[in-house]
Known about the structure:
Elements: E1 2-5, E2 13-17, E3 22-29, E4 35-39, E5 44-49, E6 52-53, E7 59-61, E8 63-66, E9 71-77, E10 83-88, H1 91-95, E11 99-104
Parallel strand pairs: 1-3, 2-11
Antiparallel strand pairs: 3-9, 4-8, 4-10, 5-6, 5-7, 5-9, 10-11
Amino acid sequence: MNICIANGHEDHEIYEVDEGDVVKVTIVNNTDVDHPMHLHGHFFYVVARNGEAISGSPIKKETLIVIPEESYEIVFVAENHGNWMFHCHELHHASSGMVAAVHYYDFEPVFTPDFTIPNKPE
């Protein structure tokens, strides 16, 4: 899966996973500001920065600050059933569309969200 940080849009990408999948994500910042990218429900490992493999101790995170013109490859194991957001932690960026979702194929939520409620992150 690839996350390209650019101008937001109304529809966000949804990535479907199975329990136990090892998911590799490439994050590219094509903007002129920093973006703290946050994955709910999982920790991830940083495996490459700007196309170069990370060496030394593993880097385990749930939020990663991606500066302009920078790219990262991260990996996580799908081991927490649910529907999870992956978004910029600058909420005004998330509300303008810098959001993706990770959904487990066989997850059945116990409630139905009411999308007519005008909820805004900020």
